[in-house]
Write a structure and sequence with these properties.
Blueprint lengths: L1 H28 L11 H10 L2 H26 L4 H21 L4 H25 L8
Helix pairs in contact: 1-3, 1-4, 3-4, 3-5, 4-5
Length: 140
Amino acid sequence: MIRKLAAAVVGVIVAMLTIQVIEMLGHLVYPPPADIEFGDPEQVREFMSTLPVGSILFVGAAWAAGALLGTLAGALLSKSKPLPYAIVVGGIVLAGAITMLLIIPHPWWFTIGAPLSIIAAAVLGIYLAPGLRPSAGTEE
């Protein structure tokens, strides 16, 4: 039981670190203006309306990769079925993404596509995890 709980925590940590690293790479490729005040909703709205599509796609890729790698990490460390880790990790990433989508205005296509990509990535993790185990087929 402790192993499974620790695996879930590690899965969430892997997801968050993955998201942070990919979003940082996105900021290197598409740096935000130095003078933007992120506490001002009007400035944020204006900033979001001028972002290149690639910049927004970095965020979506970060969320999906976080859900996938976090699910895999949890499932592989626990040596048990991956579904609970997909639910926990994917659910936390999805909750964070929905929160950001509600706080910061995003294009309509991203508001629909990002949550779907997170769910798809967590489901993909369910299917990939058993094949990545050294002793595939041994489940608790």
